[in-house]
Fold this sequence. Notes:
- This protein is an alpha+beta fold.
- The chain has helices spanning about 15-25, 65-70, 80-90, 130-145, 160-165, and strands at about 5-10, 30-40, 55-60, 95-100, 105-110, 115-120, 150-155, 170, 175-180.
Amino acid sequence: LDWGQAFQMQGLQRGVYETIRDTAKARGLELEMYPYLPLLHPDPPALPQERPSEGFRLAPVSPAHALLLSDAWMFGGNSWSLCYVSHLIRDFPNACLLAPEGHPVSWSLSDPLAALTQGYTLPEYRGKHYMGHVVGMLGAHLHALGFPVYSRVLPHNKSSLRTMQRLGFQILPGVFYQLVVTPAFGQSLPAS
């Protein structure tokens, strides 16, 4: 590891948070910890495969929509997040629901660990169960590739937890940690 660069670590392993916390403290680094609830769908073929409403259609996320997704993400709105979101869109399975005008209204990506991530529905389209269409499509694709269909949700995100449980996901024991370590003297911008 290059401890002079900002980086992220993720893991379910017991002791991962404590080890990184202690190492970061000893090196004078800043640490942000995000404890997620891990969720698994026990029967991916049972995920909903409903047809979207008239005029809406399911599709992969276009790289042209990376800025929208980055800006909607809680860690987004900066060059680092735009670079990361663009990477996820380009290199890993994803799905979105497009409005009749062609813009995404609901989406989910997958990450390098094949987990569903960054699920989001634009505020004006919430309450219509659009995420079910997206997760159904992406979950079926990941399952066909041989991956388990799983995700992680912050405990305070009750809306996402309800949605995932309504779709049949079960909360697993343990905590999935996302740990962001940054040098105390600041960050550099990503290379373009």
